[in-house]
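Lay summary. Proteins are chains of building blocks that fold into shapes, and those shapes determine what they do. In this project we predict the shape from the chain. Here is one chain we studied, written as its sequence of building blocks.
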Amino acid sequence: MIKLDIANELSKNAYPGRGIIIGKSPNGKYAVTAYFIMGRSVNSRNRVFVEDGEGIRTQAFDPSKLSDPHLIIYSPVRVLGNKLIVTNGDQTDTIYELMDKQFTFEQALRTREFEDDAPNYTPRISGILRFDEKGFNYAMSILKSANGNPDSCQRYTFCYNNPVSGDGHFIHTYMGDGNPLPSFEGEPELIATYDDINEFTDILWNNLNEDNKVSLFVRYVNIETGKAETKIINKNK
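And here is the predicted shape, written in a compact code that computers can read:
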């Protein structure tokens, strides 16, 4: 698989929708994760990320303009013990609650399907990082309709053990803009990561479409110490 330049991938796609990146920094010191949201409607664009304990949640920037909280207000990031969960919807809570009851990541997601936003049937994308004395590993998932047919839910899970330094994987909801929006296809894209969280954050934010980008979360976790550094950028200020 060709390793892609994330700046180029974002800049050439006006509407990847929501996206998750997980990987390992080139110097091997950090577990890297990022999550961004975009929006085309006033309701979708009226959001910010706010910190919530060790995770984050979405919140209406202007509560008076919030017309429908369904599918846009949720907790994208939560921490359960040695696990960091990141998703594009309220399945974060499903994963958290069921894994706390000893379900696996995949078992938890078998209780969910793609979003009920016909005609798009937006995929649910999810990721999990697990830390232990050997380092970390991660998995990514997508739940999607059968090429726009809501009668069938197609489930794909991708697991990455002993992650390679400098490699990251990028999964997003849409292949691009459209009506209906075309769902992501294939396995997560291989991208290059960066050692510096500030540089990586700037690259992601500056290459997301200016009109459609809403918020960005980036976290680097020191694999040896567990210490985390987080960056949040909101277009609404």
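What the prediction tells us: DSSP finds five helices and 13 strands in the chain.
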